[in-house]
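If it is no trouble, can you show me the amino acids of a protein and the tokens describing how it folds?
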Amino acid sequence: MDQRAPRRAEVLAALSLAIDLGLGQPMEHMLRSGIIAARLAERLGLDEQQRGTVFYANLVAWIGCHADSHELARWFGDDIAFRADTYEVDWRGLPFLRMLASHVGQGRGPVDRGRAAAAFFVNARGRLAELIHSHCTSAACLSDRLGLGEPVRAALVAAFERWDGSGLPAGLHGEQIPIEMRVVHLAEVAEVHWRHGGVEAAMAMAKERSATQFDPQVVAAFSGTLVDFEDDVWTTALRQAPDNDQVLGEDELDELLAAIGDFVDLKCPFTIGHSRGVAALAAAAAHGRGLSDSDVRLVRRAALVHDLGRMGVPNTLWEKPGPLGRRVGAGAAAPVPDRADPAPGARARPGGRDRGGAPRAVGRFGLPARRRGCVAGTAGPPAGRRGHVPRAGGRPSAPTRL
């Protein structure tokens, strides 16, 4: 096996780090939940094919979430903050309605916010169904393009279904939901509660939502899966990949990166096709400068994924009419929200990762280190909680346009 050639799992694991940021979670959230899911699958006695489906379904479970960012921002303001808060409540009853009410119309004046709330709650389930249908359709299409196969596609379609049948979009219940997704449902939410409150908090959440959101059989197998994570979450998670012995060919890698670029472009309506356009221009420029064919291909690949960081910035910024409230320094990257809540008992390790999954100073694949609220090496004050960017000294500096 060519050790220099990437595997599909490695590329999609890198993508999952960007998905994490779009969910309002620290990087490696999906990788840690993948370790939990693998332990659950083993305890439940799932066969090899099912465990492979669990691995990939967990890794890209939220691959379609950015397709509805524009609509989420229209209803709830900061789309990333909204997604982060959905982990805190079971999607039913008064707590869920309170969570929706706390976000709907965010960023608008009192009158406009009241109108938005009235328009949303007249048909709240229908509004959510529209958003989730967009998510599931995009996730299914993208999973095909990523070469993940029909079992993963079927699992992703059920990402928002619930054991009690109250989920969306189809209202599947019980064993109508693929067992692989029932495992992912619990593992992905449990990782957040474990990181925020420890094993007891995660166990309490699982028991509270048993037979409503989660399969009781999966909850029963959950005890003991939340042991301490190894320092190298990346390597541990990738050991679970079902196709570790296969590397991507050149054309396969090109197709995979093009699909990822298209996925990133779904973040905003005006960026559809942007990554492909940048890749074509960059490749033409590289060719014009006399670069070798291999270097031209490398430039094109880099251009296809150059906007991955876009997913970690709320649509309220990308789609803000007019200038921003402060200047970003010349050549600086857009601020990345800091949502990396340390795990219980976390302690920093120089050059390594703490128990909460905080990334190294220089991340994998050249991803920049994340300082408090911004990408390392960028100018400007730290970003506030849940992605709101405060103004330095409370006053706007010279504006810059997106």
